[in-house]
Design goal:
1 helix, 120 residues
């Protein structure tokens, strides 16, 4: 997988993950990446901003910052069965009874998703 494919696939998976989470939370008061966020003036690093309310007598809802730091491992090498391949994702060494030798690298993907958490 080249860098362009990696970046494209990563961004697509993040966006689809946000859409899927919003679909699963449609009956909840939680909102992921909602429109109408005011981000200026806060001093708390966990607070991304505030969401404007439709009703003037309601308090503004806090939009939290959900930070992700994901490690992605890429392995290029040969297995004892023979062949060469590249695998990106979670690696469970020895889980399939095969051994690998070759090059491996770790990439980190850090991103932030704004979210309104449900309030009691």
């Amino acid at each position: 997988m080249n860098l362009k494919q990696f970046i494209s696939e990563t961004l697509v998976q993040i966006a689809k993950g946000i859409e899927e989470a919003n679909t699963q939370l449609k009956d909840s008061k939680a909102k992921i990446n909602p429109p109408g966020i005011a981000t200026g003036g806060q001093h708390d690093s966990a607070v991304y901003g505030f969401l404007a309310e439709d009703e003037p007598d309601k308090f503004r809802k806090v939009v939290e910052s959900i930070d992700f730091d994901v490690a992605v491992y890429a392995v290029e090498g040969t297995e004892t069965k023979g062949g060469i391949g590249i695998m990106v994702g979670t690696i469970g060494l020895g889980s399939h009874g095969k051994s690998e030798s070759g090059k491996s690298s770790e990439s980190r993907i850090k991103f932030r998703v704004p979210m309104v958490l449900p309030q009691a």
